[in-house]
Amino acid sequence: MSNKKIIVVIPARYGSTRFPGKPLFEIAGKPMIQWTYEKAVAAENIYKVIVATDDQRIFDCVTSFGGEAVMTSPDHPSGTDRIAEAIQGLDCDLVINVQGDEPTIPTDIISRLSDEMIKSGAEMGTVAVPIDRDGEDFLNPNVVKVVKGVDDYALYFSRASIPFLREGGEFVSPLKHWGIYAYTPKLINDFIRWPESPLEKCEKLEQLRALDRGVKILVITSDHDTVGVDTPEDVQKVEQILKN
Fold this sequence. Notes:
By secondary structure, the protein is an alpha/beta fold. It contains nine helices and eleven strands. The strands form two sheets. Strands 1, 4, 5, 6, 7, 8, 9, 10 and 11 form a nine-stranded mixed β-sheet that branches. Strands 2-3 form a two-stranded antiparallel sheet. The two termini are 30 Å apart.
């Protein structure tokens, strides 16, 4: 049992280009944000779970099922900025960022990421899962890939199909990056003050700002994949998983 104060923050916006009102969409009898919140609450050693939102409807929904929510500015450029506002004044050692559109995220992944962060003393960490080099995900630029070193720290994140297997080269399993992050409060506050880096602007990947600044990002690997909800078409797949 860790004596560290670990907070899970779930950023949840109402506005979404592809799926407006997504956090409130009902899946298998509950709003999506409630599924995600309950997964986070069930994780071991979590001190507090907060939904950070910019919309009164999401705030009211979360408080109606007994959850904790905070209202944040609608003008934040990223989820990390929203988290930074949400944790202002809170005493914590570690913050886990769980996306509100990940209702199938395994609870044990949240626990494991927090445990590994505490053990390693890392400033930042995330999760990846092996994917098939011949599958759709490896070639899809919307699926972010990560390459890590032998010490389990990230070398690079990309929308490109990495690592490239050259003829005669030795196979390394590609890894798909999940959108779950862990960081120290200090790193979050440093991060939001740093300007966007050239690589971040190029690939449109926020985590490259941290790598550009020399931050070591711990990558833990899981065998469990998760299905996020990006569009209304994803709801049926997620509903089937939750019912099972």
